[in-house]
Amino acid sequence: MDKPVPDNYRLTKENSANILVPISETSDNKAFINPIQEFNRDLSVAAIRVWSEIVRAEKSAKFKSKRKGKKNAEEDANWKFKFSILDALSATGLRAIRYAKEIPNADKIYANDFLPDAVEAIRRNAEYNNVADKVKPVEGDASALMYQHRSGSKFDVVDLDPYGTAAPFVDAAVQCLSSGGLLCVTCTDTAVMAGTNYPEKCYANYGGTPIRAEYSHEGALRLILNSLSQSAARYGRYIEPLMSLSIDFYVRMWVRVHDGSGEVKKAFSKTGSVHVCSFCRQHAIQPFGRITVKTNEKGNTSSRFQAAQAINQSDKCSECGAQYHTNGPMWIDRIHNKDFTKRMLEHIDQNADKYGTAVRMKGMVSVADGELEDSPFYFTTDSVASAMRMTAPPMVTIASGLVNAGYQVSRSHALAGSIKTNAPSRVIHDMFRKWMKTHPIKLENIKEGSPTRVLAMKEAEVDADLTHNQAVVDLLGSKEKLRRYQSNPANWGPLAKPNSGPQNTKNSSEEHANDNATSDDVDIHKSKKAKIDMSVYDSNKPVQQNTKLEQLATATRDVPAEGEGSIHRTTFGAKADNVELTMKAGRRGPTLLSDPVFRDKISHFDHERIPERVVHARGDAAHGFFKLHTSLEDVTHAKILTDTVTETPTFVRFSSVLGSAGAAETAREVRGFATRFYTSEGNWDIVGNNIPVFFIQDPTKFVDLIHAAKPDPKGGLPQAQTAHDNFWDYMSLLQESPHMVSWILSDQTIPRSYRMVQGFSVNTFVLVNKEGKRTFVKFQWKPHLGKHSLCWDEALKLGGQDPDYLKRDLQMFIDSGIYPKYELGVQLVPEEDEDKFSFDLLDCTKIIPEEEVPIKWVGTMTLNKTVTDQFAENEQVAFCTQNIVPGIDYSDDPMLHGRNFSYFDTQISRLGGINFSQLPINQPLPQACPFMNTLRDGYSSKVIPNGPNYYPNRFNNYPKPASVEEGGLHFPPYQVGGKRERNLGEKFFEFYDQATLHFNSLSDIEKANFVSTSHFEMGRCDDVGVRTRMVERLNHIDHDMAVQVSEGLGIKCPPAVKKNHGRKSDGANPISMLSKNNVFKPEGRLIALVAPDGYDHQQALAIQNAFLALGNIVAVVGLRKGPTYGKQEGQELPTNFTFESARSTLFDSVIFLDGDDRYKKTLNLGRVKHWCIEAYAHFKAIALIGTSAEWGSKLIPVENRTDGGKSFSVQDGVVVAPKLTSQDTSLFDKLTKGVIDAASFAGAYAQAVASHRHWQRDPSELAY
Q1: Which parts of the sequence are annotated with region: Disordered (predicted)?
Q2: Which three-class secondary structure state does DSSP give residue 995?
Q3: What CATH number does the domain containing 454 carry?
Q4: Can 707 be counted among the known catalytic residues?
């Protein structure tokens, strides 16, 4: 019978363990129970059990050997090998409790933690799980405890699972283990050991520098193993790696530590440095030692230990001529023990029902078991192909070529799509050179003497046979359907972060289902880019490729720096002798129009500009990919909505509606959110906005709407604003406008970032399944970062300080490797239920409230590449609502039908003719392009067709129509009919119900902002009649709100016309930005680190590293562009901004550090004071540390104090820390692992940042 759960606790279950977690208002305690780490814990239980069986067998054999021939030589059949385990960093005790309950002969488990609260939690959970007799809670420093056990009662197993690096504990751990004992080590600081930004920190932690190549994660394993080996060797011990795995965001290894001076001598021969080519990633290994074994005449052997001979290595790569970088030292011996991995597989098969992640365990261990033992590192076909600028060949093709040439291959567990081989780099490259013969590259675009050209043009030494080898197909294939590699789950990271979107409701069994999914995530037969591990934000990581980007690459021309290609040529191909002076009749004579170079340049310049978009002219775009996770095959046969394996390339354009191409981006405007999916069935466009409804119900009004909103034709004023008489005059007379008016007066129209906007299809579409059944659908996007806004004063100032604010923000974060993600949701209504609502599904001025039709979340879009050329991509992309694919259809929404005509029609004039679909950014994927049809000619046709231009014809009737079975765009019949008339459906004529619903759904703060916005917008109207009619409109929405608006407009509000119905809507994609269903996390933010001369360098580095690891950009602000200097000599940071080149408005949060007298002097500058006051008035998170705390308390309404025995206090989102200790600073390291502990200064500030705005403040008395 289950035990009752005590009050104020919730129960978290994992396998056999039941963990009591305190219910807290300030923290969900997920820092200490990470469900993603269940895989780690499952593997560890299995590994310890297998190790214990091996040790028991060894001890048994030793006993029998000693007792051989003696009395009582037989071993007691009931003898059991009892052993002890130290869980050195135990937190809640979950790992220790599982060991106690699931490992039969572990009779003593010590669960240690430094924090008293954690030790109390261990004790409480041990008692709750009935293992208090086995699990002994210990409070203290882990290293001190291990040092106490260096002699006498040593531990048999030590488990190190820290936040970050295990380096500080290794020395103690290798000493406190019994000989042959098991050391289990986790390190989560992948940014250090597998990244390229912190080589000095990697050296400090692991005694070596990290590798910069696709095999960096195996390099991380080898760095740690070498660190363990060196530590053990100091004490006459050596290591035996049993299994070493790179998993998700961390590495985990199981290593035996033995006594033995003889083996210790061999350790230096298992260590070496690795020379890695900076371009093609070829590597060469330099061992540190070598062992020469000699046998004398009597047959006795002796070993001689010598320094290794240097490999014949220049500073340039032998393959491509680029520079070598030296990395390491690191472990160069085997990282797995095959006997151990095979025993692990047997154990998993026999106990699959005992592990929640058994399928994934088997998959990963199987790959580790199959890895080539003596071939360090691996390569991917994508990385080599990228270096040679070719289309990547299928994985199986290259692997087959290597095997056919007599070499061995295997997978690597560390990276999906990777190949291990004992073939040298030159042979690997020969395989690609053979592939290049049938997939040629454009040599004219490759610089002479460049590494790419050297690689591509080198003479092959091996005549590669790329015929698919069946043994390789079987080896790399998926016959067993093993889960070899894991897709990033929604709560990715060292901490179980709260999921965004629909995943918030996922239970543990669904998470296990994700672990146990059986699909393999790399198709060995396709040229497809392997998944990139984004657990660490690293701008040096390659952008995930997709087929659309590869297609665009063929149209991209790089300008060579030298050679023939670097010479300026005219558009007709002639080389220009001078491009700076025109031809003249005499040195001072008239310019000659006969100068062909001048005319070529100036004529092209005169025609560079094309007509800008009438609406949505201002915007920015990005490439990405979409991955469906939930199939909709019951309602559609569209592959994009049924195929959960393929990653579909996407192109997204965000925009503002009214402003011209150069307008300020932070004006109050509706935002466009247009998405193109480059599917294998053609292009599909969702051309939406960040507001789910529109102004008008019928398309014929669109012309008048835009004319009223755009600048007045007489004065050309105002630009990119709706705050003028014409717009509000039209709104006051437009009967269907109230719902849209309610949205545009909310903060939805001043978004913080395009990374934080919702997207809506606005119109209703139809999905069609294989049987022809129709289902109405509305599409929605939810940003993973949540939707957040600017405040109005901030938006006004940014219009002048940085008119490109939103564009710069999107590019900055994508280029930094912090990729925005959006969840695609659908609201589905069966055709037979069309009339059951109080509104018409075809009315685009209405939403479908989530309370009536919940959103079903089906897929995730990631934007991971900015455009290469703004004109060629952002400007020339032609989104059209009519672009659909089989399985998707139009509804009878009148606005949709108008858009279908208008969008297509406007592209013809804007892009110079009917052939705009031939532009690279508009072309469908190669699967659907070059497309075959009978359409011909027109302006700027880029295709030379060769075939019939009519149908039917005598040439086998091609190009012919496609049947439904062949993927034809088929429209099943449905009932239409009625009299021809100019009218709308009956339900279209209710205009206020949903406007009131929207207003009711706003928080009190947002309602107050709504009123203030109304005062600004309508306060710019001089016509009293316009203001009067608008107050009358608002009075139908909510009388109390209309009264408040009227008071600021000098208008008397009429009496209430109806009672507010009181209904609200708060779903998974919420209306209110302050809804509990919105996403708040300290990620994707731009944080200002105020660090003029004299700043505290230790604090600055700790904060910068912590918030970079969480996925933010931390910008240093100082007195000058260049270095800023810390308190001590030699301490400096490069600045990104100065107090003059930026204002607090550019940032989400501002941190004022501690500092010396120079720092204090800078704080007293008026500009710096304004930064603090303005950030406070804009409701942003602020940190005031040390000397800044006293200074800040005199500027803004906070007190210079601490709370509750802590070193800080939190006051309305201002974290004040008068005396921040070095221990507080060190706790920032927890944030690098995603651990947000609200009890620490670091965690409290992270939570303040996560809240985005602290609206409870009253800045009304501040001047800013």
Answers
A1: 487-524
A2: helix
A3: 3.30.56.70
A4: no
